[in-house]
Write a structure and sequence with these properties.
Distance between the termini: 18 Å
Strand content: 25-35%
Number of strands: 4
Structural class: alpha+beta
Shape: globular
């Protein structure tokens, strides 16, 4: 969650809101961070969570540390059987990750 929040802080204009969310749906828990930063096109969504060289991210206008942080979110989420995603529109962008409920031993998430 920290990596998503820090990403939102860096991409959001000063004075705008960042909203954290958590909800259970369809057998998983979704953690989200909504910002009021620039629109993310569907063509570039996959690039946000992929590790790449500093040169590749410079072309996209981001710093390598930001790209590394988002790649870590993806790796951890997928390592626990989850997923990551982005939903972007005129009112802002939501970066989120989902984790399955009951994924730990004894059927309890987080164990």
């Amino acid at each position: 969650v920290k990596n998503l929040v820090m990403h939102a802080v860096r991409r959001s204009p000063v004075g705008t809101k960042i909203v954290l969310g958590c909800e259970k749906r369809d057998g998983s828990i979704t953690f989200s961070v909504r910002d009021q930063g620039p629109f993310v096109s569907s063509a570039s969504e996959k690039d946000y969570f992929e590790p790449a060289s500093a040169d590749e991210h410079r072309e996209l206008g981001w710093k390598a540390d930001r790209a590394f942080a988002l790649a870590c979110v993806k790796r951890v989420a997928e390592g626990h059987g989850g997923s990551v995603g982005i939903e972007s529109g005129p009112e802002g962008t939501v970066f989120f990750f989902c984790l399955p409920v009951g994924g730990g031993k004894n059927g309890n998430a987080g164990e």
